[in-house]
Amino acid sequence: MINVVIGVRVSKTSKKALKPLKMKMITDERRDFVKDKILLFIPAYNCEKQLPRVLAQLDNSVMRFITEIIIINNLSTDHTVQAATDYLKQHPELPCKIINNNKNYNLGGSHKVAFHYALKYGFDYVIVLHGDDQANIHDFIPVLRSGAYRKADCVLGGRFEKDSRLIGYSRMRILGNHVFNRIYSLATGIPIRDMGSGLNMYHTTMLSSRYYVNLSDALFFNAEMLLFSAYYQHKMKFFPITWREEDQVSNAKLFQLSWNMLKMAGKYAFFRDDFIRSYQKPDIYHGTVVLQNLKKDGAVHE
Fold first, then answer.
1. 242-271: per-residue pLDDT in tens?
2. In angstroms, rounded to a whole number, what is the distance separating the alpha carbons of residues 164 and 174?
3. SS3 assignment, position 44
4. How far apart are CA 107 and CA 220, in angstroms?
5. What is the tens place of the pLDDT at every residue in 134-163?
6. Which H or E run contains 167?
7. Are strands 5-6 and 287-294 parallel, antiparallel or unpaired?
8. Which of 93, 195, 231, 292 is 20 to 30 A from residue 254's alpha carbon, by CA?
9. Boundaries of every domain in the chain
10. For residue 151, what is the DSSP state?
């Protein structure tokens, strides 16, 4: 086992807005000369069946854009880590680390560990791809190939965009998502197309103040990210994705989640500054590297 502690102390939330990065799109012909350092972060919790399928998505067409992969395991109680380890042993070409959270940080806390890692090691972007195999990273290839992501601070998967495909998603949940998209659009004054899918990309410039540490660890972390991005005037771009529900196990308590999200939207709409200032949390988010592929010898090390 390789013990590497990941975590950075953070300052209090700053009210100063972070300006979107303005860069020109880069064509495929120039990509060999200008390459962004992109971290692929896969949060995982009790997804031993789905995680190998997610890793199987990472073929050459995807990995030409990815610098490194980190799987962050939030203390799974099944064989998630073993499933990932077995896959990586069969695919030592993947530059991947498995990181165990030191405590149960939930989905939001796993994001915080990953964002810390990206900032510490100088990555330009973080792509989030959930380990439950509901999203497909190949939907993101046109955005990566064209360089369109450089025109936004965050590029977010939109399950309800015009060209999106929903497989096995109930009509009730589709309706609920549309309702919340509308509520959050009214609360923020900007079009919100999805409350939080399992495929997103963030420029580390928007994370540099580490405001995200103060957000909740719960499943509504993404909803809070949307509100803070609206407050800090981050430029958001939504893109169509394929989303499916097959053998995934949901950890969401829908009524409690919906109620919390509704309260947050109301507080943001009517008490915006107070709402932002109310978020203060200590930085307790650390992980330990338990396995990594090293490029220097192409072997998996435990």
1. 887 776 555 556 788 899 999 999 999 999
2. 12
3. strand
4. 9
5. 999 999 999 999 999 999 999 999 898 888
6. strand 165-167
7. antiparallel
8. 231
9. 31-280
10. G
- The residue type at 274: D
Per-residue tokens: 175: 């309706």
Cα–Cα distance, 142 to 281 (Å, whole number): 37
Cα separations (Å) of 191 from 69, 164, 238? 31, 17, 10
70 touches 100 (CB < 8 A): no
- Token pair 């998630």: residue: 80
CA atoms within 13 A on the CB side of 239: 22
Using a 10 angstrom Cβ sphere, with 0-12 exposed, 13-18 middle and 19 or more buried, the burial of residue 17 is: exposed
Cβ–Cβ < 8 Å for 204, 123 = yes
CATH superfamily to which 31-280 belongs: Spore Coat Polysaccharide Biosynthesis Protein SpsA; Chain A (3.90.550.10)
Instruction: Copy the structure tokens of residue 22.
Output: 């303005």
Q: Residue 144's Cα: distance from chain center in Å?
A: 16
d(CA 41, CA 110): 9
Q: Is 200 in contact with 182 (CB distance < 8 Å)?
A: no
CB half-sphere exposure, 281, CA atoms < 13 A = 17
C-beta of residue 268 within 8 angstroms of C-beta of residue 275? yes
Residues contacting 79, CB < 8 A, separation 6+: 48
208 in Cβ contact with 13 (< 8 Å): no
Q: For Cα atoms 15, 21, 40, give the angle at the middle one, nearest 5 degrees.
A: 95
Q: Express each pLDDT in 33-91 by its tens digit.
A: 358 999 999 999 999 999 999 999 999 999 999 999 999 999 999 999 999 999 999 99
**Mean per-residue pLDDT of the chain:** 86
**Which residue type occupies 125?**
Y
